[in-house]
């Protein structure tokens, strides 16, 4: 979502345009990371040797957790972000910019 907000600010896009621009860019790194993690846990999940009864449940949990979090990251979070953006209140933006401008003009006190 940080990347989406960055696109909104830098390119001046609407929320939906920023999501449609940012999501495909972030898709590849997310898929690559998730695939690598699942591929690393797969041999442990399929193990049958000594001590496998302790390691297999952990590997299955890792695989399931990564798969679920990938799904949430790619689909649920952007949808929820768009839904929640309807509640954004920008009425204070002008006041905040003015306060930051005044803060930048204030002399900095130094201790001697």
Give a short summary of the structure.
The protein is an all-alpha fold and 112 residues long. The chain has four helices and no strands. The protein has one domain (2-85): Multidrug efflux transporter AcrB transmembrane fold (Up-down Bundle), CATH 1.20.1640.
Q: What does this protein structure show overall?
A:
The chain contains 4 helices and no strands. It has 112 residues and is mainly alpha-helical. It has one domain (2-85): Up-down Bundle (Multidrug efflux transporter AcrB transmembrane fold). Helix 1 (2-11) packs antiparallel against helix 2.
What is the CATH architecture descriptor? Up-down Bundle
CATH class category label: Mainly Alpha
Q: Uncertain runs with pLDDT below 50, 5 residues or more?
A: none
Query: What's the gyration radius in Å?
Result: 23 Å
The CATH H-level homologous superfamily: Multidrug efflux transporter AcrB transmembrane domain
Count of helical regions: 4
Ends distance: 44 Å
- What shape does the CA trace take? elongated
The percentage helix is over 70%
Total DSSP E strands: 0
CATH topology: Multidrug efflux transporter AcrB transmembrane fold
Major β-sheet profile:
none
Mean pLDDT score: 87
Strand content: under 5%
Element-by-element helix/strand order: HHHH
């Amino acid at each position: 979502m940080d990347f989406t907000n960055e696109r909104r600010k830098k390119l001046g896009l609407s929320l939906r345009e920023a999501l449609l621009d940012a999501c495909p860019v972030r898709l590849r790194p997310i898929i690559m990371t998730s695939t690598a993690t699942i591929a690393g846990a797969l041999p442990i999940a399929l193990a049958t040797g000594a001590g496998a009864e302790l390691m297999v449940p952990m590997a299955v949990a890792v695989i399931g957790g990564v798969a679920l979090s990938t799904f949430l990251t790619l689909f649920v979070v952007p949808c929820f972000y768009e839904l929640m953006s309807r509640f954004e209140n920008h009425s204070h933006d002008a006041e905040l910019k003015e306060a930051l401008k005044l803060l930048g003009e204030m002399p900095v006190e130094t201790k001697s």
